[in-house]
Sequence to fold (281 residues):
Amino acid sequence: MNILTFDIEEWFHILDFEETRNEEQWRTYEVRIYENVERLFRILEETNSRATFFIVGWIAKTYPDLVKQIAAKYQIGSHTMNHQLIWNQTPEEFREDVSSSVKFLEDLTGKKVTTFRVPGFSIRESEGWAFETLAELGITTDCSVFPAHHGHGGMPTYSRPVPSIISRNGITIREFPITTKLIGGHHIIFTGGGYFRLFPYPLIKRWSSQHDYLMSYIHPRDLDAGQPMLHGLPLKRKFKSYVGLKGAEAKLRRWLTDFQFTDVATAESQIDWSQVPVVKL
Fold:
């Protein structure tokens, strides 16, 4: 089971960076989301692939016509309203952030939003309350868990990185965790972001063939070799943000040609949820 997802953000939506933290700053940068989403449309059509688009609410508010185009063709989900790390928010702020994004997307597209991903896979064990909030807001399926430690959070006690049911205080949510690969004692995500851009395709292909379950995440900026350089990024962040941009589109096309990918909704319908692990938080 291979699941393709896109996190629909602008090229400057870099987490944990003071220069791109809020809406006022975002409005000063070049708009590249239209051409980047059009690129995704072409790739999907040419490879006969389906995908789920996790959309930042600010994108929907600022470019409603673009989001309507996405929703007319593909499954959409919430990626919060303002693209903040969950542990930088209070529970009340998180609730408002998710609630406003869900309402905005639903009002704009006329489609029910039941699928969610938190920015940066930043839910930790200490933010387990977030799953209760999501359930109360009508989210039935989550794709936020990184089943190990990582820079923005992670849940290392989530021992089986496979489709599961999260149970907490009487609520349940279906969970599709991100796929990781253990390299040199570190769990990395080779199915999206900087590591997908960094590693040569033969390695991506080999690792993909070793997994019965793949959850991917691609940002539009991951395929945008012409995007400007953000000034002030630390050297390590700059490398992770810009490495491999030139070859990423061709790599994604090969990946979607060599492996069949579908969206979250289709994958969800193919699973016997009475047989999956239950994770109690």
Observations:
- The chain has one domain: 2-280.
- The chain has eleven helices and twelve strands.
- The CA atoms of residues 181 and 187 lie 5 Å apart.
- The first strand starts at residue 2 and ends at 3.
